[in-house]
Amino acid sequence: MSNLDRTPGLTPLGGLTDVAIRPVHELFAGREVLLGESTKVRRLLPNLGRRLVGPWCFVDHYGPDDISTSPGMQVPPHPHCGLQTVSWLLAGEVHHQDSLGSDQLISPGQLGLMTAGVGIAHAERSPVPHPALLHGVQLWVALPDGSRTVAPAWDHHAMLPVLTEPGARTTVIMGELAGAVSPGRTYAPMVGADVALDADGEVLLPLEPGFEYALLAMSGSVAVENATLTVGSMLYLGCGRRDLRLHAPAGARALLLGGVPFEERILMWWNFLARDHDEIEAARADWMNQERFGVVRDAGAPLPAPPLPAGRLRPRGRER
């Protein structure tokens, strides 16, 4: 997944200034962004009011889109460093290729997890032929300082733990929830879970009081305490909760994201996470000089990096 904005802004991340240490309700609507040649996404994170939820630093929700007469997702080779990417599908298929030589078809219910670490390049496309519908989320996780230069890796997990109870099924995508642990490798305490609710279904999710959380409605509408969350919107919940009750009058799919608040101050620009301007500048130069990130073979021409903004980029906290 990529931030394909040709004039990407600097996004400061981290620090505890704006972490809600008590339960809150902050509702955010997605901002429509074009991803590749034909896929429109709703960008929920970062937004003007919230930069991070635990280590989760980037959330795109797309679909359901009818791509029966279009190419579907078409994201050329592009670089990443200092983060992990998490691909999660509700419908359709995505073909992942990377500079390690990985070549994988991702289907609904399967975890596609790429650890960029010191640097990797990848491409994502709808296969040919492809299913008529495409629906999913693309997520980034910030790597903490001690892990941000690990060797790049690709992991594909077809089987994930599922918590089942009457009216609800919760798939643990990343981290741990209610004793169920995802096989996806993590570098900080966190959770990502897909909650599928039947019509009039209800579930009580156990939470960690020290985590901050957010909930994204991927389909249907979800009643969360005294709020109603509709498709493509995200509710930031803050910290201090021990559980969360969800109810879906007509059925729904919701994505729970959480983790220990990310204390480190970092910079996000284009597809790079770094600690200062010099690192961003070096990553851009390496990509343009075909160094560090490798080559994604048989995936078309790579994306050129946008020009850096004028002046030096400086890491700051979570200020809005």
From TrEMBL:
The protein's superkingdom reads Bacteria
From the UniProt entry, list the residue stretches annotated as the region Disordered: 299-320
InterPro entries listed in its UniProt record: Pirin, Pirin_C_dom, Pirin_N_dom, RmlC-like_jellyroll, RmlC_Cupin_sf
Q: What is this protein called?
A: Pirin family protein
**Pirin C-terminal domain boundaries:** 193-290
What positions does the domain Pirin N-terminal occupy?
41-141
Q: Which SUPFAM superfamilies match?
A: RmlC-like cupins
> Family, per the entry?
Belongs to the pirin family.
